[in-house]
Specification:
Blueprint lengths: L10 H11 L16 H16 L12 H8 L11 H9 L3 H10 L4 E10 L2 E10 L2 E12 L2 E9 L4 E2 H13 L5 H18 L3 H8 L4 H4 L2 H12 L3 H15 L6 H10 L3 H14 L6 H11 L3 H14 L4 H13 L3 H11 L7 H10 L6
Antiparallel strand pairs: 1-2, 2-3, 3-4, 4-5
Helix pairs in contact: 1-5, 1-10, 3-6, 7-8, 11-12, 12-13, 13-14, 14-15, 15-16, 16-17
C-alpha cells in the first residue's frame, strides 16, 4: 500500500526530544570502567528492548551512567564553565523527553529492536532501530560497566550525525556565551514559551519566539530540527525552503544521510534518496528493513518492478513485518493479479501488525480478498 507521504524527516521527533530536555544528565565520582563482554552487551540490549516493549517511560534515564556521559560532555572544556550544568541535566532527565520522542516515532504500534551488536576499539555497542507510524530512526548505544552493572555510556544519534555528548557539549558552549547577560534570562523564558506553544499547537507563536533566540543557538542541529518541526506545521513552502538550506549546509558532510533523506524526497530526487538509504544501511552495518524503504522510494519513482523486488526480499528477511505485505497485496490487487494478492493478504491477516482499517478498505475494494 503506497504511502502518500513517506513521513521521512525522521530527525524531528528525537531532536525535539533532545531540545525539550536541553540538558539532561548529572554526574558523580566515576570509577574506572570494567570490560564489557559481548554476551553482557547482548543481554543488556535485550533488557532495553523489553523495557521499551513494556513502555517504560524511564528506560534511558535509569540506564545511562551519568558520570561517564558527563566526562564525554566535558571533553568540550567550555562546557565545564557553565554554571548549574549538572543540576540542570539531572532535573531535565526526569522529564523523560527522550523516551517520549522514541515512543512518538513508534506511535503505539511500532518497534524498538536491536539490529546489530558489535565491538569497536574494545568497547561494546548495540544499534537499535526505532520504527513506527511516524517514521524510523537508529541509535547506536555504547556500553560501559561499573560496579558489575552494564550501563549506557553514550549514544550516537543517526538523525544528527554525532554523539549525544558532543551535541550537549556544543549546546553548553553556546549557552555559555550568554551567561550573566540579559539574554540569558530571556533564554529560559523563551525556551519555555516555545515548548508550551508547540505543545498547545500554537506554531506561529512558537516561530515568533524561536526567531528571537540568539543566532549562535539557532545555528545548532538541535535547534534547527525544532525550527523544521515548527515550519512543517505552518507552511509547506517555507518548510521545503528550510530543508534546502539544510541540504546546502550538510550535504558534503559525513553522517547526515538520515537527515537528508526527506530533503531529497521532497525534491523528488529519488536517486539521491536511494543513495542516502544505501549510506544509512552501510552505517548501521546492514539492516534488511531498509529494503522496505527502498521499495517505497522506488514506488514513488514509479519503478514498480524494482519496488516489488525489494518488498519480496523483505518477506524473506523479515517474515513478520505486516506493512511490507500490505504493499505487496495492494500492488497485486491494483493490477488484478488475484492469486498473488490473496497470497500476501492471507499472510497479512495473521500478523500482529495488521490494521483493521486497511483490511476493511481492501476487502471493500476487492471482495475476493475475503473469500
Amino acid at each position: 500500500m503506497q504511502q502518500q507521504t513517506l513521513n521521512t524527516f525522521y530527525m524531528k521527533p528525537l531532536l525535539l526530544g533532545l531540545f525539550l530536555a536541553c540538558c539532561i544528565f548529572t554526574g558523580c565520582k566515576k570509577k574506572d570502567a570494567e570490560k564489557v563482554s559481548k554476551e553482557e552487551a547482548i543481554a543488556f540490549a535485550h533488557t532495553i528492548e523489553k523495557q521499551v516493549e513494556d513502555f517504560k517511560i524511564d528506560f534511558i534515564e535509569k540506564n545511562v551512567h551519568f558520570p561517564t556521559l558527563m566526562d564525554r560532555i566535558y571533553l568540550n572544556e567550555n562546557s565545564k564553565k557553565l554554571k548549574g550544568i549538572e543540576a540542570g541535566m539531572k532535573k531535565n532527565l526526569s522529564s523523560n523527553n527522550y523516551e517520549k520522542a522514541i515512543y512518538d516515532i513508534m506511535g503505539g504500534a511500532g518497534s524498538f529492536e536491536m539490529t546489530k551488536q558489535y565491538e569497536n576499539n574494545g568497547l561494546q555497542h548495540a544499534i537499535f532501530r526505532i520504527q513506527g507510524v511516524n517514521g524510523f530512526n537508529y541509535i547506536d548505544m555504547e556500553f560501559t560497566k561499573q560496579d558489575k552493572k552494564i550501563w549506557i555510556a553514550d549514544m550516537f544519534l543517526f538523525n544528527n550525525g554525532e554523539n549525544l555528548s558532543k551535541s550537549m557539549g556544543d549546546l553548553a558552549e553556546k549557552l555559555l556565551a550568554h551567561e550573566g547577560t540579559a539574554i540569558e534570562k530571556d533564554l529560559v523564558t523563551n525556551m519555555d514559551r516555545i515548548k508550551k506553544y508547540m505543545r498547545d499547537g500554537e506554531y506561529e507563536n512558537a516561530r515568533t519566539v524561536y526567531l528571537r533566540l540568539p543566532y549562535n543557538l539557532r545555528n545548532n542541529k538541535l535547534y534547527e530540527g525544532v525550527y523544521l518541526e515548527i515550519l512543517s506545521k505552518i507552511n509547506q513552502e517555507e518548510y521545503l525552503a528550510e530543508l534546502e538550506k539544510i541540504t546546502q549546509k550538510y550535504e558534503s558532510k559525513d553522517g547526515y544521510s538520515l537527515m537528508l533523506l526527506d530533503v531529497y524526497l521532497a525534491k523528488k530526487d529519488f536517486a539521491k534518496a536511494l543513495s542516502c538509504i544505501d549510506v544509512i544501511d552501510s552505517t548501521v552495518k546492514h539492516d534488511p528493513f531498509l529494503d522496505y524503504y527502498r521499495g517505497l522510494v522506488s514506488n514513488m519513482n514509479n519503478d514498480k518492478e524494482k519496488a516489488i523486488g525489494y518488498f519480496q526480499k523483505v518477506t524473506v528477511n523479515m517474515p513478520d513485518f505486516a506493512d511490507n505485505y500490505a504493499e505487496l497485496f495492494a500492488h497485486y490487487s491494483a493490477i488484478n493479479d488475484k492469486e498473488n494478492a490473496k497470497k500476501y493478504y492471507t499472510i497479512y491477516k495473521t500478523l500482529k501488525g495488521k490494521s483493521s482499517d486497511v483490511m476493511n478498505f481492501y476487502e471493500t475494494q476487492y471482495p475476493y480478498l475475503s473469500e
